[in-house]
Design brief:
This protein has 19 helices and 11 strands. The protein is an alpha+beta fold and 382 residues long. It has a domain at 1-117: Beta Polymerase, domain 2 (2-Layer Sandwich). The strands form 3 sheets. A 7-stranded mixed β-sheet has the order 3-4-5-2-1-8-9. A two-stranded antiparallel ribbon has the order 6-7. A two-stranded parallel ribbon has the order 10-11. A hairpin with a 7-residue loop joins strand 6 and strand 7 (74-78). The longest helix has 24 residues, at 357-380.
Length: 382
Amino acid sequence: MKVYLVGGAVRDQLLELPYNERDWVVVGATPEEMLAQGYRRADRDFPVFLHPQSGEEYALARTEVKTAPGYKGFQVSYGPEVSLEQDLLRRDLTINALAMDESGCVIDICEGQKDLQEGLLRHITPAFSEDPLRLLRIARFAAKLGCWGFRVAHGTHALMKKMAKSAELETLSAERFLKEMSRAMGEPQPWRFFEVLQRCGALHKLIPAVAEIMGSESAGHGAQTAGGMVSALKRVVPVSDDPQIRTAVALFYAARNQPDLAAWLDEIRLDKRTGELLRDLLQSSSVQTDETSGEHLLDLVARLKPRQQPERLEGLLLAAEAIWPERMEWLKPDLTAAREVLLAPLPERLAASELRGKALGDAIRSWRLDCLQQLKLPRNNL
């Protein structure tokens, strides 16, 4: 039995990048032998086991044969007779088909190290096209490695264009697309996820509303995409690494064009927090000038529940500054002032007042409006 470190950990180690997870391939072993050594099953369908001490995943070397449509339509074969080379050849990209033995020697049968040096995302064999999920993965790797100059190889881009036209792409669920998109939003250049999918023609099938925002898909795969969405993503990256905030920024431009926002969010299976932030951004877009009434500002911030959910306004401010950098120069101080007023303790005359119900509510609102106006006066008089 031989054990090899494989995939992303080897790739990132050679690129001198940090990595959080390590995956291992075991050659020459059976499931029974793995269980006898204390490993635990990690997957019901695949020969993947958890190490008894580290909890890391150890997979038996395996091969895959396409037997049905979709990214799950593969027959998996494994056993002690499957070699490391066979296992590596089933992988998606050359830079992910690298292995390292216990002595630190790199096994590279697909010229992955050469592509690392040249900054290329290149498929290994034409079997790349059998798995539609690989379109999303290569787009995510472009988002991860683009800042180091990585780009999609011309031959791989041509194959991706064929994949985008095939019925295989329709087997990808909205949940699977959202999962890969969310992972890409946590990478250094999240906008490249959308650019790569747009240029190969897949984005309009996966999320048409965003494809419309991205513009024509006829641009070459090495071209730069312009537009508000990409520019906003580039602005939010330095100030927030939160994938949900970045996702809200990316989807805002498509969301504002939806006649039925709730139906669209349900269609793309967006999580609750990101959907909430999108709605907050759309509400904030109604504030067009710095002459907006104090009542409007107070109502807007009150909706965010600043006392119960303080992080909600913080997320809105980060996303909004990326979308409307000039407008937020005056809107951010106004929203911050409204939060201060809403969180401020009531004066004694109101706290001890005999007013009740609507009368008390009106008095509190009047006091808060006066406070907000006082906070805004110094800036308005500059």
